[in-house]
């Protein structure tokens, strides 16, 4: 029963590996057939070229942008266009004022909007809301009549001083007329639609379906420290199956939002008691003069976290989270120019990188075959499977998270060949060590794995930590290299656990390897298995003199310092006993 256990374990591991490969291949195939995925991974800016967008600050009067503001803007825009750090987009400064954004490939609409949406993020309370948004009303004669354009003579000063940002005293006759006449379609062609932070704002949502009159700014977008999309849970902790956006505020934002939530929740409770609705129970997230979302306040927020709920999909929730997280710029920017740029390296360098990788693989194959003979084919098959998993994973990441393979990423893949081969060599050498100590092959495979996996896990953890540190503290190509290195490190562990070790468990039960065939790479005699440890050797009569001499020399090479000292002490004791006799 005990002998069949490793075989069963090996079979299960290989089945799981097969399921993983099939699942990745099926996901990529479905993405190619019914989605926007491509069979080949997307290439980075240095290999494919792309689009260059130059942003210039929109300043009023003689004001100037400071270097700190410019650096802060670069950091935020970099997060907008390259939130995952693997799209290989670059953001840099030009002179003392402009920002240059280089995006691989064609500039899609979503990325363009993230770049151009450079106004400050603001949180304003809702005073009035009208849906659907129209620019006309029904008169007493039943006909549709356009709302009048606000007359300059209409009063625009509150009759009474507003007590807070939700006070309806903000709604002056001029603002009411402006709100009535406002056409949401005008936002599509308007270059700007902003108002001072201490004044109301007339605007619409992105879809142009709802028109709003908003009060003054109460919380700045810069007070949002984090925003993430996630599934909503009930008070009992049960997943509701709906998507929402989780917000985290800094101390100033949390204090201000706490005050706002108490007031708006009061409007919500009063409206619920009366069986009506009150737009003043809503607060609006405003970016670039447009309302991203205007949820109701249905409770008092006392901490620094909040949650936005609504009719979200996963995509819309993630989009809103990115807009809220990366929306607050210190200065507004406008697009000065947009140009197509050519690849800096191109296909020739990509071909050179692929040739270098092929040469590296070939050298590893040759070395393992010379060093381990037939056992080297396990390394070759393991590397082939690792390459297939890496390719499928990278292609899927290109589709799902915008991963771009640059020359730095190619370098990460080449470096991973050596790291992956190290794992196999450590394992094989541990098996050989167990054979030298006189174990049978099946026992040596299991004992060698127990010893090797600690070394493999420690080495891979070190590699992964290095990749994570590089990814966090670097930008651009270095981030792409770190991401590729970390990904291949994880895949390396998967291959060793689900393929290399199970294959060795199965091979250990074959006659070719179990008998120690000279071509197997696991010949106990050739490895010096006559050495039993602690300075003891088998009697010379058990093996031929030539093989004994060769094995003894090999065993002597493998002895540790402690073992050699123990052998010398034992030999000295034997000589003394002989003399005493």
From TrEMBL:
Residues 332-507 form the Protein export membrane protein SecD/SecF C-terminal domain. Residues 134-143 have a biased composition (Polar residues). It is found in: Cell membrane. SUPFAM superfamilies: Multidrug efflux transporter AcrB transmembrane domain. Residues 70-126 form the Protein translocase subunit SecDF P1 domain. Residues 205-331 form the SecDF P1 head subdomain domain. The chain crosses the membrane at residues 350-370, 377-399, 405-428, 457-474, 480-499. The keyword Transmembrane applies. Keywords: Cell membrane, Membrane, Protein transport, Translocation, Transmembrane, Transmembrane helix, Transport. It comes from the Bacteria. InterPro entries: SecD, SecD/SecF_arch_bac, SecD_1st, SecD_SecF_C, SecD_SecF_C_bact, SecDF_P1_head. It is a multi-pass membrane protein. It holds the Pfam family SecD_1st. Residues 134-165 are annotated as: Disordered. Residues 152-163 have a biased composition (Low complexity). Belongs to the SecD/SecF family. SecD subfamily. Part of the Sec protein translocase complex. Interacts with the SecYEG preprotein conducting channel. SecDF uses the proton motive force (PMF) to complete protein translocation after the ATP-dependent function of SecA. Forms a complex with SecF. Part of the essential Sec protein translocation apparatus which comprises SecA, SecYEG and auxiliary proteins SecDF. Other proteins may also be involved. PANTHER family: PROTEIN TRANSLOCASE SUBUNIT SECD, PROTEIN-EXPORT MEMBRANE PROTEIN SEC. This is Protein translocase subunit SecD. It comes from Gryllotalpicola daejeonensis. The gene is secD.
